[in-house]
Amino acid sequence: MAEFRVRVSTGEAFGAGTWNKVSVSIVGTQGESPRLPLDHLGKEFNAGAEEDFQVMLPEDVGPVLLLRVHKMPPAMSCLLRPLAQDAWFCRWFQLTPPQGSPFLFPCYQWLEGAGSLVLREGTAKVSWADHHPLLQQQRQQELQARQEMYQWKAYNPGWPHCLDEKSVKDLDINIKYSTAKNANFYLRSGSAFVEMKIKGLLDRKGPWRSLNEMKRIFNFRKTPAAEYTFEHWQEDAFFASQFLNGLNPVLIRRCHCLPKNFPVTDAMVASVLGPGTSLQAELEKGSLFLVDHGILSNIHTNVINGRPQFSAAPMTLLYQRPGGGPLLPLAIQLSQTPGPNSPIFLPSDDKWDWLLAKTWVRNAEFSFHEALTHLLHSHLLPEVFTLATLRQLPHCHPLFKLLIPHTRYTLHINTLARELLIVPGQVVDKSTGLGIGGFSELIQRSMKQLNYSALCLPEDIRTRGVEDIPGYYYRDDGLQIWGAVERFVSEIIGIYYPSDESVQDDRELQAWVGEIFSKGFLNRESSGIPSSLETREALVRYVTMVIFTCSARHSAVSAGQFDSCAWMPNLPPSMQLPPPTSKSQATPESFINTLPPVNATCDVILTLWLLSKEPGDPRPLGTYPDEHFIEEAPRRSIATFQNRLAQISRDIQERNRGLALPYTYLDPPIIENSVSI
């Protein structure tokens, strides 16, 4: 007979406690104990509780390998269904033998209804480090169970694959929103919807009467950035600055040679460049930049309220004044085919001609951003990373412990998007210029061009040639965050992988990378995405890319959506008249009539307001309350990472105090660990 002490920690979230009965079996090298009830007088396992139990083993099972946890509803629970389905969130078990040090078994999972769960002692182990057959078997069985639970499906041809579930109601409890987050989400959406309904805006299918009338909707929800946008949206400097620090800061690139299909001349831009220089001189200096929305050429467009919508594929040439002056637009062509029906619009043109051309560019930014920068890069790819992590890495794997905080709620929000956003009859279908068909076509086109370097920020910045353009805070803050994540990942990899060979020999790691390549990037070798990893350096780069994509990149392109669109003319989701084919035709009336109708405007603004802010239950970048790592070395690395992020935040806030429009989207306390909204 041997007496063990069992300490159990229950989570603090609403509903984390349970009325069910819990018992454990201790698995050792020489056998497995019978079920040992964890029972006191009164109720156990209340939310936030840590409780001690004494259990007696009738026979010695040898050195402890595993802890099997059993959860059963109480007697007569068949009469009370809530008791039978009662969920419990277990944080961890601690097992103290008669002699020796205690064993800590991290859990951080929900157990719903009757069932069993196998836990391992918390030391992280790669696949080649497990030698006992029972531990090897446990890894395989855990992955087999998760691969059955989380399966892939092809949602649309040419898209990354996704989780095979139709509704968030069908999701496993461990990947669902918490009760608090779910309630806040629907309360926010409900209150906003009711406000729009009361004002009669969601049912009004006609055009806006004037810009002044649009101010009614602008008062819906104000932010300082939205108010700044309202005050400055017509200014050339603000128009250009949004390519650097707006919601789509990933497209601008340095221009050393004008595209042949964009025939800008010296005479066209002389008024902005000034005397003593030329286009060729500025191209050679590297002071010209290009934003090319060519991927939108001949894209499928939508029908809203029975009216066909229109799209453009503009090219925008920008000029960086010497001495650190503001970036300014030089010329805009609204198609990829120059000619008499595709004039090049200039700042010297009539006010309404120039404003309409800039507004067409902003509409292209909306389409490109929502379909590609946001949906594809910042939701669909993180879902691939999440699903592969759940399917290919067991809980004890150091990469699982490192990555699991960066997958929190991603499968929930993406499943919800497939229910409520990108399906017939919902907002993308009803209220955007491209609709579901255009979004799908755009993603298919982009997947053929997508490459690894575009997902790795330092390489992306170099490839686009924007290392030294002033005032590019997305670049500045993003590189700081990337560097902090990279150092953190490098330290963790260094702890568990002593050599390149140890990376090559980790079959679970290789299966994880291979599944991301096949299911996320559709086996396209031209993408440069690796299908296997051979070195520690390659592993660090890859994991850094995954964490950055799931956290900082999503924040940069998601958190500012409402700020940019609250004043709709700054970011119109659709255009109701075709792009102009000549100059001197635009008027205030034609400008208003080109913009989306009232109901579509409000539908999109409401949606982006909802999707720009976490609905409670946040976990900022580097916040790891679920302590999957128990060893001292990774804990030190986590603390160092958190200190680096805190210093980055202080630096950002100090800089922002001197800016008329602070750039906050990459301030670490604003960045969520994962894609969760």
Automatic annotation (TrEMBL):
- Report residues binding Ca(2+) 1: 15, 17, 86-87
Compartments where found: Cytoplasm
Chain ranges of the Lipoxygenase domain: 125-677
Q: Which SUPFAM superfamilies does the entry mention?
A: Lipase/lipooxygenase domain (PLAT/LH2 domain) (SSF49723), Lipoxigenase (SSF48484)
Q: Which residues bind Fe cation?
A: 374, 379, 554, 677
Gene3D superfamilies, from UniProt? 3.10.450.60, Lipoxygenase-1, Domain 5, PLAT/LH2 domain
Query: Which positions bind Ca(2+) 2?
Result: 39
SMART domains per record: LH2
Q: Which residues form the PLAT domain?
A: 2-125
The UniProt entry lists the main location of this chain as cytoplasm
Pathways involved: Lipid metabolism; hydroperoxy eicosatetraenoic acid biosynthesis
Q: Which GO terms describe its molecular function?
A: arachidonate 15-lipoxygenase activity; arachidonate 8(S)-lipoxygenase activity; calcium ion binding; iron ion binding; linoleate 13S-lipoxygenase activity; linoleate 9S-lipoxygenase activity
Marked site (Essential for stabilizing binding to COTL1) residue numbers: 110
Report the cofactors.
Answer: Fe cation
Q: Which Pfam families match?
A: Lipoxygenase, PLAT
Instruction: Give the family per the record.
Output: Belongs to the lipoxygenase family.
Q: Which protein, by its recorded name, is this?
A: Arachidonate 15-lipoxygenase type B
What species is given as this protein's source?
A: Aotus nancymaae
Q: What is the lineage of its organism?
A: Eukaryota, Metazoa, Chordata, Craniata, Vertebrata
